[in-house]
Design brief:
mainly alpha, disordered N terminus, disordered C terminus
């Protein structure tokens, strides 16, 4: 008789391996049979990461709106320059020792509002004349674009010094010039339509780098020495960590910082043209684009607040607000023209309501290019009419310049080409004409003045 169950195989002698733990030869892992290592799939960016990368490249890749910032530079410098030249015979009564608002009263006011001005540094007439002349020179040089980085700082100092000396003067346009003079310091406003851009274009055409830039070095050294003397003499407003252009940043820290950055920029461009230059150039583009955004927002706020405040006025609601200033002798340089327009009730109503509608609607039309351009033309025409009918040319010129930040680039490049063609026709020069009206590409001129110390 045999057992109904088959005998279990016994382990071989000397193996010491239990039959249940013994590995089958076909499943035994060896170096030859180990599965190959699979490489990890390439990392794919998410949609949010791609959007952040595109945004960062947009704000740091280039200094945007070169033509618009050039128009702002030229417009505000010309506005302030023309105002100073027109008021040259009255300068002493407006801002100087002959002003009814005496220097002691101005010092008391500045102590209260903590505004900045270099005029209280000395009460002599010679110091006032020097500041006034330097303000004129800085405005003229900024307008033509010579050493725009430095001239923008001197332009700001001139504007703040004179306007803060007598704050009761002005017609509203001075407030716009006051704000824009500080914003221009952070912009690359000399990329096109400037002597800096022409100098950079000539250096690029010759295939040579600019040399030691002796004029820039001398200007930088003189300005540093002047600031050091003012600091040692305890110039009014030169504080380090208070009452400055930014919270907890005084005017001494701001001015010395700008002076040091100009020197660092020149040193890096000349002696370290690798990664340090790329980093500084990226920061400069970021500052430019940020200041440009602030300028655009500032213009929108001006029109939005003006329009909404007008809506609350009863005279603007009944359509008669424009009638009254046109019948004031002080605002009627052309009385016959003012009387002709003021006698038409329909025209007064259209001007009143049209002003409110344009000012309130403009910030909401920026997303629609065509509608924005239509309202932009309407606002420019409105300011031209204010200049002619009410006799406020500098206010109108300041507001038209602020509006220019929204002008289309195609229109500005077309205008540049026409102006260049007219110039070549009136003042022909030897050599073959440059294509495209002779204006360099914005990207080529983006580093205009970058080879100079204070360009």
């Amino acid at each position: 008789m045999t057992s109904p169950t088959q005998p279990q195989p016994q382990p071989s002698a000397g193996t010491g391996t239990h039959p249940e733990t013994r590995t089958h030869p076909e499943t035994r892992t060896t170096p030859e049979t180990h599965p190959p290592h699979r490489p990890k799939p390439p990392y794919e960016e998410t949609r949010i990461e791609r959007a952040i990368g595109r945004g960062f490249a947009l704000v740091t890749g280039r200094a945007m709106a070169p033509y618009q910032t050039a128009v702002i530079r030229i417009g505000f410098a010309a506005t302030w320059l023309l105002f100073l030249l027109r008021e040259w015979p009255n300068r002493g009564a407006l801002y100087g020792p002959d002003s009814p608002f005496s220097l002691d009263m101005a010092r008391q006011l500045l102590n209260g509002n903590h505004a900045f001005s270099v005029l209280p540094w000395s009460g002599s007439n010679g110091w006032f004349e020097c500041v006034y002349v330097l303000a004129i020179v800085a405005s003229a040089l900024l307008m033509v674009g010579w050493r725009t980085r430095t001239m923008s700082v001197l332009f700001m100092i001139g504007v703040l010094s004179l306007q803060n000396r007598s704050i009761f003067l002005g017609d509203g346009g001075d407030n716009v010039v006051h704000l824009m003079s500080m914003y221009l310091v952070l912009t690359r406003c000399g990329q096109v339509w400037s002597l800096d851009a022409r100098r950079a274009r000539r250096a690029a055409a010759d295939g040579t780098e600019e040399g030691r830039d002796l004029p820039g070095i001398l200007l930088w050294a003189v300005l540093g020495l002047a600031l050091a003397v003012a600091q040692l003499r305890g110039g009014y407003g030169l504080t380090w960590f208070g009452n400055g252009p930014f919270p907890h940043i005084g005017w001494s820290l701001a001015l010395w910082g700008l002076w040091a950055v100009h020197g660092l920029w020149w040193a890096v461009r000349r002696h370290a043209p690798g990664e340090p230059r790329i980093v500084l150039d990226t920061l400069a583009k970021l500052a430019h684009n940020g200041a440009l955004l602030v300028i655009m927002v500032e213009v929108c706020l001006i029109y939005a607040t003006a329009g909404w405040y007008k809506i609350q006025g009863s005279r603007w609601q009944d359509g008669t607000a424009v009638y009254y200033p046109m019948h004031l002798d002080y605002f009627s340089p052309w009385p016959a023209l003012s009387q002709a327009l003021g006698s038409s009730g329909l025209m007064i109503m259209l001007l009143t309501y049209g002003t409110v509608i344009v000012q309130v609607a403009f910030p909401f039309t920026l997303a629609n290019r065509r509608l924005k351009n239509v309202l932009l033309v309407a606002m420019i025409c409105e300011h031209l009419s204010i200049a002619v009918l009410l006799g406020l040319p500098f206010f109108s010129l300041a507001m038209i310049t602020a509006d220019a930040v929204f002008l289309p680039t195609n229109f500005l490049t077309w205008l540049s080409g026409r102006a260049a063609a007219l110039r070549d026709r009136l003042f022909p020069r030897g050599g073959a004409p440059r294509p495209g009206g002779g204006e360099p590409e914005a990207r080529t001129a983006g580093d205009a003045g970058g080879h100079t110390l204070v360009g």
